[in-house]
Amino acid sequence: MTEWLSDNLVSILNGVALGCLLFALAVGLSLVFGVLDVLNLAHGSLFVAGAYAAWRLADDGSLAGFGLAVVLAAAIGGAGGLVLTVATRPLAGRSHLDQALLTLGIALVVTELVQSWFGRDPHGVLPPLAGSVEIGGGYPMYRLALIGAGMVLAVAVDRAVERTRAGALVRATVCDAHMVAAMGINTLLVRSGAFIVGGALASVAGVLGAPLLGASPHLDAQVLLLALVVVVIGGLGSVRGALLGALLIGQVQSLGVALVPRQAPFLLFGAMAIVLVLRPAGLMGTRAVAK
Fold this sequence. Notes:
Elements: H1 2-7, H2 9-36, H3 43-58, H4 63-88, H5 96-118, E1 132-133, E2 139-140, H6 141-163, H7 165-182, H8 187-213, H9 219-234, H10 239-259, H11 264-278
Antiparallel strand pairs: 1-2
Helix pairs in contact: 2-6, 2-7, 2-8, 2-9, 2-10, 3-4, 3-8, 3-9, 4-8, 6-7, 7-8, 9-10, 9-11, 10-11
């Protein structure tokens, strides 16, 4: 066992790094789906916006440019979340198919705009932290920093949801939005806040993921698929479920490619199928869809 861990240490760390990135992307989607009951297929477009912000401001690996890209991406993502709140509001109470068609249309428009502005070619982004540490023969410092940033973000979001009044309102809205409204609380503000925060997190995740995945117009479909799988596995509206699901999918992706590359594309959905058979509401979810 020790020898196996030593041989696959780099793949395991890559899985943790990918999991932390997926958490930053998926936790906002999970909260939006859990609080608003909105299936937002434009979530990946916010990730792409962050990736392009990193490319434009920090493609040379500048730490200052990278920090500026994070701030700009948070603003863009928050604004995008507000736009999506307004756009999906008329569909409240309607089927997820209507929401999916609307947000998918928005995502397609964003993709076309990105292509017209920046072209179809993918762009690479140098990591703001160069060099490596003596782990597994040399492991990139940026990926370790990404793991650390992801864990800090997970603790911060979990404490915000579990320990603050705003978080209590979010959790109450996930459980019973009608009761929250009956108490005189403006659930529209709670819903808007969830969308804005989720959008900001998705765009910041795009900045963090740019040195790993680059920036390209069609990256949104790839990351959205992974985020949806994370949400389904973790459970709707659960921060800890999103973290657990993201880390699980990170390992499935990384170890799958390293150990069984031919079967790797099927392992992702195999893991999701197993979890849904054993836990239909997800690992830490209480219901399939919040009402």
